[in-house]
Specification:
Mean pLDDT: 89
Radius of gyration: 12 Å
Number of strands: 3
Length: 76
C-alpha cells in the first residue's frame, strides 16, 4: 500500500495546512486535503470518509479553531 497522508484541520487554518502539505510533498509524501482533492460537484462527506479509509496516516492539525470544529471531531 502506498503511504498517503490525510490532513484534518479547521478551514480557517488553510494557509498553515497548505504549507504543511507542500513540505510533505517536497519529501515525496502524497497528501490528501479536502480543498485540493475533492471536486466541487462531489459529495464532501463521502469523499472524506473514503479518504479516511484509504489513507495510511492522518494528521490532525490541532488549533483553537480545530478543537471546536465538529468536522475535525468527526474525522478524528
Amino acid at each position: 500500500m502506498t503511504t498517503q497522508v490525510m490532513v484534518s484541520y479547521a478551514h480557517e487554518d488553510k494557509d498553515f495546512v497548505d504549507k504543511l502539505a507542500q513540505a510533505l510533498k517536497g519529501d515525496n509524501i502524497p497528501v490528501w486535503i479536502d480543498h485540493t482533492n475533492i471536486p466541487g460537484s462531489a459529495k464532501w462527506q463521502r469523499e472524506i470518509e473514503q479518504a479516511l479509509r484509504s489513507c495510511t496516516h492522518v494528521i490532525v492539525v490541532l488549533t483553537p479553531l480545530s478543537v471546536k470544529s465538529e468536522w475535525v471531531k468527526a474525522e478524528y
